[in-house]
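note to self — DONT lose this again. spent like an hour looking for the file last time. sequence + predicted structure for the chain T wanted, 287 res
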Amino acid sequence: MSKTAIPEFFVYGEPAQALDVGFLHVETVLARASVHRGQVQAHKHPQMAQITFWTSGSGTYRIEDETWIFSAPTVSFMPSGVVHGFSIEPGADAIVISIADAALAAIAEHSMLPLDQPVFVTGRGESALWDKLAGTIGMIQSEFREALPGLEKILLSLIAVALSGIARLDADSHSVAVPAAVALAGRLRRLIDRHFRDDWPVERYVETLGTTRHLLDKAARQVLGKGVRQAISDRRLIEAKRLLLFTVRPVEDIAYETGFNDPAYFSRFFRAAAGRSPAAWRRERLK
């Protein structure tokens, strides 16, 4: 696929937008049939990953420069920033689960599936494993539709189970080859998730990944839409927002938890990025 002028979407057909830290969305492919008419052109999502579970029909799926002919059941996991698209026969349908990178990071340690590279599985694995995955995806769809109290916690747990279910379908070979820049950006994202609290300088990321600063920054801008330093800062901000929104911990504790030795500096950092103090941001969200 050409990397020139690849459109970026929120969900397909809608312009990219900033996502809340806990953003989750579930819908079917047929729900957007009037938009794509069976031909979803090459695109990417800058801030969210997607699980797509095909429940019926067949078609052609494209990820970066690879193409597959598939029929249901088929499942894919697409990290943010990876180019993909598909064309389907009439009647084909899938359940699409969209997860903000911020929410995905919270469940990474509970998933058997690596979350920094795309995965596409069709026609492999035991039927019992496909049945289990179908049951989990169905529960996610039902929970999202019913929107009962505790929705986010339940959905995140179920998504972790679904991701591990994908890994079980093809434990020996489940990843998709991607261009070098996409792979490098994925490795960077995983490393930032592990070490953003440690206040690593950019050069340490460069050294650990065995690359050059120029190549790493270029890959980050191409795939993540931002430079390495900004990616680190954004990850710290995301974690701070999650802790402010979903815990009752004091702002000072959250500052230390996100790698800031000085709570006052943390507050200045947060205000510059979010437009208000941590305490004020929390009050507004919890009204």
